[in-house]
Specification:
single chain; 294 residues; alpha+beta; Muramoyl-pentapeptide Carboxypeptidase, domain 2; six-stranded mixed β-sheet; two-stranded antiparallel sheet; 28% helix; globular
Length: 294
């Protein structure tokens, strides 16, 4: 197992790196931000309002800033995140992974309807994988090494705009929308997702985190099938933990095969999600981005 978080901390899965005190199920960020967010959401916007967020708005931008301002209350424990002023991918040093590996397999979930929200997510204007340049280069090295073994990566998510994370939080507050429960959280009440599984600040927004799986391919590389990992992507359950009990020996071996391949190029697995990897050290560990994926 790649180095786990310290035993005195735990992290909220979709946040990917929101440190939390072991005496609480919520991160410090979440305890500060969620009450303010709940007050804002007391008059929850309808679907029309959510759809309106697909384009940048002053209100949405200010809301992201409000989240970050609240998160700044943990400066005593760790440097508070800062929202980059970058307005384009180029200005943020984000590159499309396909500029380095033109035929890498992608199924960018949040750009379509096949995700836990059940709709395209704010900020995803195209199904692309953007990463900070050093991260993209490291991921390209992983892919090249895997191809020598007739294996390939398949990418589900990369850089995630801050506005997309805000969309997740709005969705989590809408307890009436249960469309994706059978596929993504069959054993959980949706009211438990916010804090335990969805946090207002995500490591993906720093441009160094990827969600992905592994495929085995024919010798000519034309036919690839995903390896059985035991759960689907964004499955909110202990079975998604990388070392989860109850999965088969073959599923565990497949998870470790992916983990070892990623680790050789400096990617660390998040133990609560077998698909989630971050390049360590991160190029911009305290900077969040909100440029659209397009």
């Amino acid at each position: 197992m790649i180095t786990r978080p310290p035993m005195t901390t735990r992290r909220s899965p979709l946040a990917g790196d929101a440190l939390a005190n072991s005496e609480s199920r919520l991160s410090t960020d979440e305890r500060l931000v969620i009450p303010a967010f709940n007050r804002r959401m007391s008059g929850h916007p309808g679907k029309k309002s959510i759809a309106r967020q697909r384009a940048p708005t002053t209100t949405g931008y200010l809301f992201v800033l409000a989240l970050l301002a609240a998160a700044g209350g943990i400066a005593h424990a760790e440097q508070a995140p800062v929202l980059s002023p970058a307005k384009t991918a180029a200005a943020a040093n984000l590159v499309d992974i396909r500029t380095l590996v033109p035929d890498i397999a992608e199924d960018i979930k949040y750009a379509g309807h096949d995700n836990f929200v059940g709709a395209p997510v704010d900020g995803y204007l195209a199904p692309k994988c953007l990463l900070l340049h050093p991260v993209a280069e490291a991921l390209a090295r992983v892919e090249r090494e895997l191809r020598t073994q007739h294996l390939r990566l398949k990418i589900w998510d990369c850089y995630r705009p801050a506005r997309a994370v805000a969309h997740f939080v709005r969705w989590a507050h809408d307890l009436g929308d249960q469309r994706t429960k059978p596929q993504h959280y069959p054993t959980l009440d949706k009211s438990k997702l916010l804090g335990d599984y969805i946090a207002p600040v995500s490591g993906h927004s720093r441009g160094a985190t990827i969600d992905l799986t592994l495929q085995r391919c024919a010798a000519d590389g034309t036919r690839c099938e995903p390896l059985d990992m035991g759960t689907d992507f964004d499955f909110f359950d202990v079975r998604a933990h990388t070392d989860a009990p109850g999965i088969t020996a073959a599923q565990r071996a497949n998870r470790l095969l992916l983990r070892d391949a990623m680790a050789r190029e400096g990617f660390r697995n998040y133990p609560m999600e077998w698909w989630h990897y971050t390049l360590v050290p991160e190029p911009t560990p305290h900077t969040l981005y909100d440029v659209p994926v397009q």
